[in-house]
């Protein structure tokens, strides 16, 4: 099965904007690919050393963390099977670790976005 890649863009200066990614229940081959901007301009990711996605289920109160990878100017996360196993909405934020010149890490947090897991059979 081919992976389905959901490409979204988040602006670091727009913390109130909401982006939604819809995935089908039990569809495990899905990736969120995120481009970052700052004030509408592309945000350079070359100093990012780690990426983590924090997901909190609204109905089930589960917390799920997923590590990601930096691929060029995008950060990519596989959507874990524990997320797609249940119909729910997951509030998500991304935390990026950026290494400075003194080797101490600083952190960037993305604006929130939502992964909506829906039951395809219930919509037919």
Provide the descriptors you would attach to this structure in a database record:
single chain; mainly beta; 124 residues; Immunoglobulin-like
Give a nutshell description of this structure:
This protein is mainly beta. The protein is 3% helix and 57% strand. The protein has a single domain (4-123), classed as Immunoglobulin-like.
How would you portray this structure in words?
With 124 residues, this protein is mainly beta. The protein is built from one helix and ten strands; from the N terminus they run βββββββαβββ. Helices cover 3% and strands 57% of the residues. Strand 5 (48-57) and strand 6 (63-71) form a beta hairpin.
Secondary structure elements and pairings:
Elements: E1 4-11, E2 20-24, E3 30-38, E4 41-42, E5 48-57, E6 63-71, E7 74-78, H1 81-84, E8 88-99, E9 105-109, E10 113-118
Parallel strand pairs: 1-3, 2-10
Antiparallel strand pairs: 3-4, 3-7, 5-6, 5-8, 6-7, 8-9, 8-10
Let me know the average pLDDT: 89
The total count of helices amounts to 1
Residue fraction in strands: over 45%
Which value, in Å, is the CA radius of gyration?
Answer: 15 Å
Q: What is the structural class?
A: mainly beta
Instruction: State the share of residues found in helices, binned by percent.
Output: under 10%
Total number of distinct structural domains: 1
Looking at the overall shape, the CATH architecture is Sandwich
Q: What is the string of SSEs from the N terminus onward? A: EEEEEEEHEEE
CATH topology: Immunoglobulin-like
Assembly level: single chain
* Biggest sheet descriptor: 10 strands, mixed
CATH class group: Mainly Beta
Tell the overall outline. Answer: globular
Give the terminus-to-terminus CA distance: 23 Å
β-strand number: 10
* Unreliable segments of 5+ consecutive residues: none
